[in-house]
Amino acid sequence: MEKEKIDQFMMANAKFFPPMMVGQIKDKLATLGEDKETMLMSTDWKNPTVGFLFAFFLGGFGADRFWLGDTGLAVVKLITCGAGGIWSLIDLFTVGKRTREYNYKKFMTYF
């Protein structure tokens, strides 16, 4: 991938990835072939802000966990009503990190 395209990708999508992985992402993008470049550019990344809103308004029902594909824990959270709200409160503070990690794992599937 060309440097301009890498910079463009990072400007548009860096907020969706863990800050400590940005350098590694740039290195991986430099080795990306043209066939996968188109797929990567059209990928919809999950927004950590949306995850926070799910956790804030529907956290007791496990919506944030369902949204990230963590179905097993989401069902347990739903059954226990977020363990009396404590689990929901913890998820409220960790959903941003979990969303960025989810996006990073999705990014790594292209390599």
Q: Please, what is the oligomeric state?
A: single chain
Q: Spans with pLDDT under 50 lasting ≥5 residues? A: none
What is the C-alpha radius of gyration, as a whole number of Å?
Answer: 16 Å
Q: How many strand elements?
A: 0
Strand content: under 5%
- Helix proportion of residues, in percent? over 70%
Domain TM2: 46-93
Subcellular location: Membrane
Transmembrane segments: 49-68, 74-96
Organism: Segatella hominis
Could you characterize what this model shows?
The structure is a single chain. By secondary structure, the protein is mainly α. The protein folds into 2 domains: 1-10 and 18-43, no CATH class; 46-110, no CATH class. 72% of the residues lie in helices and 0% in strands. It is built from 8 helices and no strands. It has helices at 3-13, 22-30, 34-41, 48-58, 63-67, 71-79, 81-84, 86-108. Helix 1 packs antiparallel against helix 2 and helix 4 runs antiparallel to helix 8 (86-108). The protein starts with a helix and ends with a helix. The model has no long low-confidence stretch (mean pLDDT 94). InterPro entries: TM2, TM2D1-3-like. It is a multi-pass membrane protein. One of its GO terms (cellular component) is membrane. Keywords: Membrane, Transmembrane, Transmembrane helix. This is TM2 domain-containing protein.
